[in-house]
Amino acid sequence: MSALPEEILRKARENHVPVMMDSGMGFLLDYISHHPEILRILECGTAVGLSAIRMASLRENLLIDTLEIDPRMADEAIRNIHDVGLDDRVFVHCIDASLYETHQYYDLFFIDAAKSQYRMYLEHFYENSHAGSVFVFDNMNFHGIVDHPERSQNRSTLQMTRKILKFRNHMLEDARFETVFHPQYGDGILISVRKV
Ligand SMILES: C[S@@+](CC[C@H](N)C(=O)[O-])C[C@H]1O[C@@H](n2cnc3c(N)ncnc32)[C@H](O)[C@@H]1O
Questions:
Q1: How many CA atoms lie within 13 A of 34 on its CB side?
Q2: Domain boundaries, the chain
Q3: In this structure, which topology does domain 5-194 adopt according to CATH?
Q4: Residue of minimum CA distance from atom 18 in ligand 1
Q5: CB distance 73 to ligand 1 below 6 Å
Q6: Does the C-beta of 51 come closer than 6 Å to ligand 1?
Q7: What is the pLDDT of residues 10-61, one digit of tens each?
Q8: Is 97 in the pocket of ligand 1 (CB under 6 A)?
Q9: How far, in Å, CA of 67 to CA of 104, rounded?
Q10: How many other CB atoms are there within 10 angstroms of residue 58's CB atom?
């Protein structure tokens, strides 16, 4: 193992790569650890592969497909995953997540790509889920701006945070899922478990 996760994180922070916040990552890892029935994971938004490496390192029976639109990020993720010896269980696909088609069922979906597209990802991958599959959505606070729009003057940020709020409210009402919002972890994490 030449590129330890700590080194990957240090480099990611140095290069301003947006990786999941520590407390959000801790919460997600804890959730997966407490659910041994989770075996197959689909991640939307690989970046440099850090979250995929952390999840796959939890136990040896986890298989992860991870989707990344940016070829340079995907290449770096592939290198990092190879360096930590996880390339037999973590598979990087360089593709827009909304175009990824598979017949595979997943036990957990970690959605961490384009924030304004979360509803679309959910519907796109719904057919790859089963009763009990878990959807985890990061950045549901978007640095506090979702609940405090006065904190930003940026039009495109505000457009996106309005979409996040609409999505968050939708998920809390969507009868197909049991949804809990955890605003205190990371940048706000929404966990939706498919009911039937
Ligand atoms: C927040 S970062 C992911 C961080 C990573 N999950 C971690 O915690 O280590 C979001 C990533 O999603 C990628 N992305 C954005 N839109 C995407 C799309 N439509 N399909 C796939 N990846 C996308 C971005 O290029 C970026 O690398």
A1: 7
A2: 5-194
A3: Rossmann fold (3.40.50)
A4: 96
A5: yes
A6: yes
A7: 999 999 999 999 999 999 999 999 999 999 999 999 999 999 999 999 999 9
A8: yes
A9: 14
A10: 15
